[in-house]
Design a protein that fits this description.
This protein is of the alpha/beta class. The chain has a single domain, classed as Rossmann fold (3-Layer(aba) Sandwich), CATH 3.40.50.10420. It contains five helices and twelve strands. Strand 8 and strand 9 form a beta hairpin. The model has no long low-confidence stretch (mean pLDDT 95).
Length: 180
């Protein structure tokens, strides 16, 4: 089996496992994961946190973002062409869904001081114990992460932590993986 077939099979398996979770189960697991993150020294010391505004099939982040955006600067990615730019989250009323994937994104000015980001919370389809990450396959996060030297936390459900993630040269590894 070639690399792309392996990745495709992993993505299909994880998608099926995610479909078995109710929204309440997803939120309960997300609460466990974010409690683990909130006690990390890297999170405590971070004034600026890059997160993601979750899609229905991802680990939910909305409650975490709402909890922290008044006391920390929360950045969210915005798709521009094949890249992600960053914008500050300033509440649900300042989100728009203008991209082809249906991701809610903040409106406003682009954040350009990437060197000031304290941590990045990164979604993924699968992770392994060597801190490798498998994304959706478009490379958005790998391009963004290769440009910043920041503590990267991959988040996912327990079943998203697998034995081996096949990677390519451009794939960026995480500093820490947190699951429920």
């Amino acid at each position: 089996m070639n690399l792309n077939d392996s990745k495709k099979l992993i993505r299909q398996n994880i998608i099926q496992l995610k479909k078995q979770l109710t929204q309440n189960e997803k939120q309960e697991k997300a609460d466990i994961i974010f409690k683990k993150i909130e006690v990390l020294p890297e999170f405590k010391s971070a004034e600026i946190v890059l997160c993601y505004y979750s899609l229905p099939d991802e680990l939910p982040t909305h409650n975490f973002i709402e909890k922290w955006y008044n006391s920390k600067t929360i950045l969210l990615p915005v798709m521009v062409g094949n890249d992600l730019i960053l914008k500050k989250y300033s509440g649900k009323d300042n989100l728009t869904t203008s991209n082809k994937f249906g991701v809610s994104e903040p409106i406003g000015e682009q954040f350009k001081e990437n060197n000031k980001i304290g941590i990045i919370i990164v979604p993924g389809i699968a992770f392994d114990n060597n801190r490798k990450r498998l994304g959706r396959g478009k490379g958005f996060y790998d391009r963004l992460l290769s440009d910043v030297n920041v503590f990267k936390i991959g988040v996912g459900f327990n079943f998203q932590l697998i034995e081996y993630v096949p990677i390519e040269e451009h794939d960026v590894e995480m500093d820490l993986i947190v699951t429920d």
